[in-house]
Structures are given as structure tokens and as C-alpha cells.
């Protein structure tokens, strides 16, 4: 090891605050404002530490609309890996580290509560808000990714039940799932008004679906991923609950710069890169993955392109 590398390692990891930040980012991708809240530090100080960690290639950032989100990158060089392991052991019993983890848990709970509060507050007004998407064409095209009527289908993040009604009217038995009680109540009213049967409403999250393994023939998430903390756990759950040979269908926006959606529609992500979605679906064990961009679905409106992604759970004992 060169003396220059040794000095860089000492400079980077010699400050316990930087190790604390690294430990937090190992657990969760965070914005500067969230790190400020967890650590109780000013933005200038947090940003300075992040800059040093980023220069050492231990931390990377990505843009998500108007936010910069930071995540930890495990050191690859043996010298860095050994030094990082030693630094983590050194602060393991530090009371500040324990406080950080408790504060991080509070920040993550607040994130989740903000999402629930948004949907609980809009409730039955959601139909009026979501008309901005003009997504009837997308829903119709999504049906092409289904096999015929008679299937049991999960509508993940059902909202007010718009897609659930379409699926039920197509002859499917629908299990409509949402984490917001206000949304489920609005969906129940809409189903009753439409005179639609064959829809079962269940409370649950996309990351923890209230479904048994292989309980459904297909699972849909229609404009849902953009509201989640991360899409990967939800995609893995959808893969889990479909039967072997069953299909997962995802409909959402391609990566875009319409930051107004975060304020007006409460989204967490400004779309997704098709290649990233395809990789997440394959990582969830899905095969025959296709991500089809639908530019004409939002043509003429100030809206990003959309995609319909589908993947199939492998048959057993092939």
C-alpha cells in the first residue's frame, strides 16, 4: 500500500461522523435533508462530509427530480475494505451510532406516513386528480398482457378501483389491494355504484402483499411504482404471489423531469429507466421480460412517456 493511499484512507475514515454517515447510507438511500435530521447537523457540514466520501468513491448520488439521493458503495480495494470494517467496529458501541439508527427509523416512518397521509387526504378526489394521466389507452393495452377471463388477478395499489372494475368486467376475479383505508372506502363506493361484483378488497402494502405464494394468476401495478420507496421489493412480492407461469404487469412513467408531479400528485420517483425496470424484474425471478414504451399514450399532453412492462414467473420443474 502506498503512503498516499494510506493517508487518504486515514483522512476519509478518521472522522467518526463520516463513518456514521456511511453506516446510515449502507442501510438506506437518503437525501441531504434526511441526513441533517438524523444527525442533527447543518446542511453545510453534512454536504462537506458527503463530498469527502464521494471523492473516495464510498458514496454515490443520483438525481430524482429536485432531490439528490445518496447511497453507500461497498469498497472494493482490500485496503479500503479492511479500513472500513475496522472503522465500523470502532463506532459500533458508540452511543451516537445507536441514536443515529433510532433517528433513521423515525425518518423512515415519517416517509411512509407522508405517503399514507397524501392518499388518505385525497381519498375520493383521487379520480379527479389522476385524470391528468389520461391513461384509458394504457389500461386497455395492459389487458393484452393478460390471458382470458376467469383468472384471479391482483390489482396492487388499487386506489379507487378503476383498474379493478375494468378487470372484473373482463371476467376476472380481482383481489384489489391498497394501504390507504380512504382509498379502499372510495373503491368500495365506486364498485357498489358500478354494480360490479367479483372484486375483493384487502388492506396491505405493495412490499408486503396480503396474498399467499402463487395465489393469483396475474398481478398488476398501474401507476403505483412511482409512489413507492423503491420498486424492487414490490416487484419481488408480485413475483412471489403469481403462480408458476403467471404474469406480472407494470404500468408507469419513463424517467422524466416533471418535478411538479412530486408536489401535485405526491409521487416519490420521476419515472424509471426501462433497462432498470427490466433488471429489477429479472432479479425478482421473472422471465420473458418485456418493457414496451408507449409514447403515443401521452402525446399532446405535458406528460412523460409511459411503459407497459411484463414478465412471467418460471414454470416449476422445467
Would you kindly provide a brief summary of this structure?
The protein is an alpha/beta fold. The chain has helices at 3-13, 16-27, 32-39, 43-55, 78-91, 95-122, 126-130, 136-142, 162-169, 181-194, 231-241, 260-264, 274-283; strands spanning 30-31, 59-64, 67-72, 152-156, 173-178, 199-203, 216-222, 242-253, 287-294, 306-312. A seven-stranded mixed β-sheet has the order 6-5-4-7-8-10-9, with helices on both faces.
In DSSP terms, counting alpha (H) and pi (I) runs of 4 or more, how many helices?
A: 13
Multimer state:
single chain
- At the fourth level of CATH, the homologous superfamily of the largest domain is Vaccinia Virus protein VP39
Q: Which descriptor suits the 3D outline?
A: elongated
In terms of DSSP E residues, the strand content is 15-25%
With strands numbered from the N-terminus, the spatial order across the biggest sheet is 6-5-4-7-8-10-9
Structure description:
The structure is a single chain. The protein has 318 residues and is an alpha/beta fold. It has two domains: 3-93, Arc Repressor Mutant, subunit A, CATH 1.10.10; 124-312, Rossmann fold (3-Layer(aba) Sandwich), CATH 3.40.50.150. It is built from 13 helices and ten strands. It has helices at residues 3-13, 16-27, 32-39, 43-55, 78-91, 95-122, 126-130, 136-142, 162-169, 181-194, 231-241, 260-264, 274-283, and strands at 30-31, 59-64, 67-72, 152-156, 173-178, 199-203, 216-222, 242-253, 287-294, 306-312. The protein has a seven-stranded mixed β-sheet, sandwiched between helices. A three-stranded antiparallel β-sheet has the order 1-3-2. Strand 7 (216-222), helix 11 and strand 8 form a beta-alpha-beta unit. The mean pLDDT is 83.
